[in-house]
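User: I'm putting together notes for a lab meeting next week and I want to include a structural view of one of the chains we've been expressing. I don't have a solved structure, so I'd like a prediction I can at least talk through. The sequence is below, exactly as it appears in our construct file.
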Amino acid sequence: MWHSTRTRQSQENPLAQVVDIESELKYWQSQQSDGKLQLLGATRDALENCIKIGYDTYLLNHRQSFDEVQPTLQARYHKYRADDLIAWQNAQPVMQAIWQRLKGEPAQSQASQRAGRWM
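Assistant: Thanks for the context. Below is the predicted structure for the 119-residue chain, given as structure tokens.
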């Protein structure tokens, strides 16, 4: 599977993650268009905001597991989501799918059992 992320080493940070956000936004929008990602009632802008928060939090915490970061991610999501219509219980499976994609892990079936569905 191709990812638009790279690992970069530098003197300040021996292992840093770099993400091509435009490419990633296109990937997730295509997943939504193809029906593989279902967020009922979500606008394109709301989905984009959700994805950007997920990537931002991943880049800040990429050495940790999703489960370790989930409380921080949820707090950031509530702080920055403004008036978007995606509730956390719908956004959380998307956030987890982002994490899995960037870490190269397979998608978990539990995400498909929630209101935000990853097919």
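A couple of points you could mention at the meeting. The helical segments are 21-33, 44-61, 66-80, 88-103. The beta strands are 5-8, 16-19, 37-38, 117-118.

User: Perfect, that's what I needed.
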